Structure formats: structure tokens, C-alpha cells
Amino acid sequence: MSKASAEALAALAAEVHGCQRCPRLVEWRQGVAADPPRRYRGEDYWAKPAAGFGDPAARVAIVGLAPAAHGANRTGRMFTGDRSGDWLYAALHRAGYANQAESVHRGDGLRLHDAYVTAIVRCAPPANKPTIAERDNCLPYLERELELLERCRVVVALGSFGWDGFLRAARHLGAEVPRPKPRFAHGAEADLGRWRLLGCFHPSQQNTFTGKLTVPMIDAVFTRARELAG
After folding, report:
1. Residue 26 pLDDT more than 60?
2. What is the model's pLDDT at position 192?
């Protein structure tokens, strides 16, 4: 990974943090910060878009849906401070990609090795449902991250929104997406030339509390990711 690429990722993160492209999302993220639930009262919310986080030399990228209202929108780091993040970073720790299993706040010492965590949409959306226009406003950020992650060879998509969004970004970057378009499923794989795409159920409470996603299931995905990354 060149120093120039690492610096370019940092510059891109600063650009993401200042984004105001989607008025509905700007209003929502700031409104949540102004009136948080009781358990977070008194905390200084990030209330800005969240940039990708991780190793600039990563061979594996993890793509989620969007920041959670009281997760990354509060803490300022992807998948940090919520139950989904608890699951994801614990899995990355077990797989050897993270130095610790917890992700609580930006200054907690978490470091990723050979992995980079990002999302399709960078602002917390109402009901976790961004619009198509909001997705398309945000996709160029993912495309630029992928261009700068020069060593990335495997992408783990968390949920169908991450899967479809990545396919769209990859097509914009010149990848040959198979037709018919590969369909999302847990454990699904798609060969896009430069990247191998893996599907994983999103580690949302809805999936983890009901047993739709289990520890062995998410661990199997990251074991496969390591195999494919080499």
C-alpha cells in the first residue's frame, strides 16, 4: 500500500465527514443527536457521515448498509457502539482481523489488520431504509474507496442492500458483473474478476436474536474470505 493511497483514503474520509448531499439524512442524523434516548443523554454525538475504517492495505473489505442512529451516528466509527458492531468485530477478532473483540468508541484502541469496514450509505437513515437516490448519492464514495484499496480482493457484503450496492459500484468501476445478476444469499459467492464477493446475513439484532445468523455462520464466511484472499 503506497503512502499516497493511504493519504488519499484519509482525505476521502474528511470529504465524507463533511457531506451534505442528502437533506433528509442530514436532518435525521442531526435530529437523533439532538434528542437521544435516555441511555445516551449527555453524550456528544458524531452526527456526521461515517467514513470507512480499517487497514489501507486490506485484502478483505466488509460492506454494510448504513450507520445506525445510535451506533456510528453516535460514535463516529462504522459498526461501533451497537449490537451489530458487537457481532461483527467479535467475528473479525476470532478470524484474526481485529486486535480486540469490542468496538465501543473511536478511541478504544481497536485496530484492523488486512480488513476494511465500510458501507453503501454513510448517514444513518430513518428506519434503516435509505432511498434509491440516497444510495446513488453515496455510491461514489464506495467506488473511490475501492479504487484506493489496491490490495483488496474479497468483499463481504452484509445483507442484500450491501450486496446489490457493491455490484452496482463494481460495475461502475468496470467489473464484469455476471448476467443474470448474482443473487444474495448467506454464503453466496460471485466472481467479478478483481474481486470475489461473499454474502453474509447482516448481524442485525433481528437476525442474531432469531438465530437467522449464528456465530458458526458468520465465522464460516470470514474463514472463506481468508481462503480467497490468500
Report:
1. yes
2. 96
Label residue 21 exposed, middle or buried (CB < 10 Å: 0-12, 13-18, 19+): middle
Please state the domain count of the chain: 1
CATH of the domain at 76: 3.40.470.10
Amino acid at 175: A
Q: In this predicted model, which residue has the larger pLDDT, 5 or 202?
A: 202
Residue closest to 114 by CA, chosen among 96, 100, 141, 101: 96
* pLDDT per position as a tens digit, 212-229: 999 999 999 999 999 999
Alpha-carbon distance 120 to 64, whole Å?
A: 6
- Helix or strand holding residue 117 (H, E): strand 115-119
Tell which residue, 113, 38, 35, 32, has the closest CA to residue 66: 32
Assess contact for 124 and 32: CB atoms under 8 A: yes
Stated pTM of the model? 0.96
Distance in angstroms (rounded) separating the CA atoms of residues 156 and 195? 10
The answer to whether 114 and 57 are in contact (CB under 8 A) is yes
CB atoms within 10 A of CB 14: 10
CA distance from start to end of the chain = 17
> pLDDT tens for residues 35-56?
999 999 999 999 999 999 999 9
Q: Which domain holds residue 73?
A: 3-229
